[in-house]
Amino acid sequence: MSDESLRAWLVATVAGYLELRTSQVGTGVTLRSLGLDSVHAMALCVDIEDRWGVLVEPTLAWDFPTIDAIVTHLAPQIDRP
Amino acid sequence: MTDFVSRFRARPRSDRKVTYLSDGRPAAELTHLELDRRARAVASWLTGAGMAGRPVLLLYPAGLDFLVAFLGCLYARAVAVPAPLPLSSSSRVDRVDRLAEDSGARMVLTDEAHVAVLGDLSARTFDETAAAGSGEPPGVDADAVAYLQYTSGSTSRPRGVEVTHGSLTHNLELFGKISGDVPVRRIGGWLPHHHDMGLVGLQLQALHAEADLVLLSPEAVVARPIRWLRAISDHRVDWTVAPDFGYAWATRRIGDEDLDGLDLSCLTMAVSGAEPIRIATLDAFADRFASVGFRRTALNPGYGLAESTLVVTCTSRGLGLTVRTFTAASLAAGEVVPTSDTGGVPLVGCGEPGDMRVRVVDPATGVEVDDGTIGEIRVAGPSLAAGYHGDPAATRATFVTGPDGRWLRTGDLGFLFERQLYVTGRLKELIIVRGRNLYPQDIELSAREAHPDAGRGAAFGVRDAESGEHVVLVQEMRRASQADPGGFTAAVLDAVTDQFGVPVSIVVVRSNTIRHTTSGKVRRGHMRELFLDDGLQALHSVLSPAVAALVATSAGTRV
Q1: Which residue, of A45, B237, B302, B317, has the fewest CB within 10 Å?
Q2: What interface predicted TM-score (ipTM) does this complex get?
Q3: Any idea where the AMP-dependent synthetase/ligase domain is (chain B) (predicted)?
């Protein structure tokens, strides 16, 4: 696993919730500004848990408001091959 | 008619239970008999504390304690005030403060886990160790207020609907009629208990109908909607309730791998209510889960509001959807014309008026209109609430007493057609341009579909004494968009004016400019004020001269 694969997965996942193209999802802009709401934020926690096997707080998307910040936060917790 | 409280107390069953499914923990259970015993103890304690006739604010997480406390209040003749448990954020605490102030509640009850968190509110747990009073409490006065139902509403001020013991009982009896010949056996769902549909439609209905009740928390189901369907399948639930959002979210988030072993053939009643019902949502849900036994006839839309306790009309169990298609032009003109054209607008019927009388009236004159004509929906009957707590002016304006009885002005627009009630929008948001009725949500949808970078929108009318009403659209352009704001504006304007044939003034703004309520309803009135006060940061705007003049005058005079 590289940080880049986590980042790319987050971009694709968030784009899916918001029905955006992945090119429209910047990793340095706040998720709220992209239109992420509380229901999407809950879904993101669940999807991270399912895909990456780490438990995250429901407030993840507000505590770490950009994709880059989430990557920095999560990368050390995710097992590397 | 025996009231709800007296009836439940008289014969709580030991073979019916309430179950709370908490993820990762064993299910918590109480039989109806145990629930009654605990509620009696709470009532005895509340009576000892002198709470009869006084409001008690109930701040509980999802679980069984809420129902014990709520019933305890009703037994003791205290006025229950269910409210959402505040999160740590200050805005939510402010909301609770406003509820406490508005309701006049001096006692706040919560569970062990939240006493410390709610320290500022002097919240406490109920005490069940107080000696239970011997003998039965006095009979219930049907006109006494049982609880206050606060509606979220889009106004800053909370509004507590006074639901009486009589209106609650009547509404619960209405559910029995909707159920038909076969009484409901197991009710399951996840709507919060401070929501009228969660309180009356799930919890109190189960007690009144002597049915099992299976509860989940809203958070658990939003995170993984499969939990809702799993609970229905595992517990053989035959009746569930959710807003349109719930059915849409389940359809979108539940994967094929989750469907293994799921059997929804037990479900005969899946009520959709509390927000506009979209036929596309119901179709997609029925298609998605048909392979695991879900029957389309189980989808039964309803119409209701807290001012009528909960339900006004609801499709009877087993009847399924009534969908009729009308021409878009006839809906805009306010006299519906059915069509079989593919270009028509399909609408879902919300059931036939029965014990609650329904009238559709011209909102300007109050005169009843013919079937098929759109007007304001008015409702009369014993389920009507007493009024708004502490607000006689709002009560008089909304609950209108005339020679033909007491009628609730719902503020909702709709029409009767082939005996079914159809709901088409909200009165106060309606935009009327040269006699044509335009619904803001239709304009917003058209704009959203006009360009891939179109986010939320808010459409509303602004009125000029001379030139009449004008349509204004405040439209968000997604922040990540690379589009030129001028080109984006033109594309949206083209689509909207093409579809509706009226001039539209547009202000293009950044994402997260449009305000909405916690339940996701666009706050069009608020956006209208911001617009008229010239308080929007526009990326681009195209205003008709009349509208531009209105803004200049209005913003100028308000400073």
Answers
A1: A45
A2: 0.81
A3: 23-389
